[in-house]
Design goal:
Number of strands: 4
Shape: elongated
Radius of gyration: 22 Å
Helix content: 55-70%
Distance between the termini: 35 Å
Number of domains: 2
Strand content: 5-15%
Structural class: alpha/beta
Strand order of the largest sheet: 2-1-3-4
Oligomer: single chain
Length: about 250
């Protein structure tokens, strides 16, 4: 029996449900195609079923490849691409299925982020410190701070009112690139300019999920922020998680 960590099992279950749902729909269309239709109508239905079956079969291989990877705890070269393709292709389907079941979007996205991080860990990505980009959201900065750090993190006075000063220390200790960004557009700008081999991003479920999907195949390791004051204001993050993520990439060299 396969047993996964609770955080990952939600997204995996929704992926399996999406494949099963698609198979049921195809079976229904195949049944309908056997009814009385004109020849050209039946031909179109049969061709559509064949095409859909090929797509669903490919995605199913990816999903079961993902299950095998997570179960064995190692990557399989012939399944890696199919597993990543299935995760990215089925994410919106899994999200919609979760909505129908009354499951919180944040829970589904959080589960997706855990699966993504596990896959990145298993991929054994190797990077020099200067090939790693750490993206921190501007909402980590103290709301009443007069100094703008989104253009230059050096503007931080390290007063201790927020976590931005910790990221200056992380940059200086590990010699990685660190950028404080206001959103996805600014994050993509830094990625284009620096062309990192690996990204460590801190954000909420929504922003992390969109960033991971938009950046594929670039490995983006996601770390959720804490929001004691609500979204987008005076958020927090456990910097030891950031340190561990950096060390995981560097120590694989």
């Amino acid at each position: 029996m396969l047993v996964f960590a609770p955080g990952k099992s939600l997204f995996i279950s929704l992926l399996l449900g999406s494949v099963a749902g698609a198979a049921v729909v195809i079976a229904g269309i195949w049944y309908i195609s056997g009814q009385r239709f004109y020849f050209y109508q039946k031909t179109v239905l049969v061709l559509g079923v064949m095409l859909a079956t090929a797509v669903v079969f490919t995605v199913a291989v990816g999903v079961f490849g993902l299950l095998l990877i997570l179960w064995k705890g190692s990557m399989f070269p012939f399944l890696n691409s199919a597993a990543n393709m299935a995760v990215n292709l089925l994410f919106p389907v899994a999200l919609q299925m979760g909505r129908l079941l009354g499951i919180s979007e944040d829970k589904i996205k959080g589960s997706f982020i855990e699966v993504n991080n596990h896959l990145i860990t298993l991929q054994n990505v190797r990077a020099d410190a200067r090939e790693i980009l750490v993206l921190a959201p501007h909402c980590l900065q103290y709301n009443g701070c007069p100094f703008k750090v989104t253009r230059n993190i050096e503007n931080c006075r390290q007063c201790g009112n927020c976590r931005i000063g910790d990221f200056l220390k992380i940059r200086n200790e590990f010699n990685v690139h660190v950028a404080v960004v206001t959103g996805g557009t600014m994050a993509r700008k830094y990625i284009r300019e620096l062309r990192p081999k690996a990204v460590i991003a801190i954000a909420c479920e929504r922003d992390l999920t969109s960033g991971i999907l938009d950046s594929y195949p670039l490995p983006v390791y996601g770390i959720l922020n804490d929001r004691p004051c609500g979204p987008c204001q005076d958020t927090q993050v456990k910097t030891d998680l950031v340190n561990s993520a950096i060390l995981n990439f560097i120590e694989r060299r």
